[in-house]
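A quick aside before the break. I want you to see a complete sequence-to-structure record at least once, exactly as it would be stored in a machine-readable document. Don't worry about memorizing anything.
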Amino acid sequence: MKGFDYSKVKEEEELYDKLRPLGHKITNKCYKVNYIGTENIPSEGGFIIASNHIRALDPLYIALGVEKRQIYFMGKQELFSKPIIGTLFKKANGFPVVRGRGDKEAVDYAIRVVKEGHILGIFPEGTRSKDYKPSRAKSGIGLIAREAKADILPVSIYNCDEMEKGSRLTIRFGEIIPYEAFGFTEDGSREEVRGCAKLVMDKIVKLWGMGHCE
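That is the input. The structure line, written in tokens, reads:
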């Protein structure tokens, strides 16, 4: 994407952390957010966070649950064309991807994020769910995991009230899936890539099925 520097991974540490209090204010006004399983978040090293996708603010909800680390979320190119939202997303480590075709620059950047020890955030479905339920994952996450040799942390976002203001929102972090569990061979076939994506989405669906915390 023109205007985004894919040449290096840069951490906007100061702004990212300054935005946290504002993020909490926004989420608290919208929903009653509960976090479960935050102890499963690795304290160091690069890996991928993969979640189902309900609303535009999903990256914010997840990021606020990862208190001591920053996440580099991959977002659709259209977000970055919006002056305010695009600027904030980019300043908070977000980066654009062109959907519907192989965006090599974005994929290479995503791989580099993980290899350099950061957390990459991905919504495997590629778009928001219209019925608030998890759907089928695209193979992109499998490709990135294969090339980065990345572990993946599945996350579910659950809401049973169609995201009505003031309703409950549960963010559940599962146990990390080690890279070895995906069974990639040296060739890393398309079937293996699709199998990785399916395994990750199955884990997300299982977490989602647990519903709210009681």
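Two observations worth writing down. The two ends are 44 Å apart (CA to CA). The mean pLDDT is 90. We'll return to this after the break.
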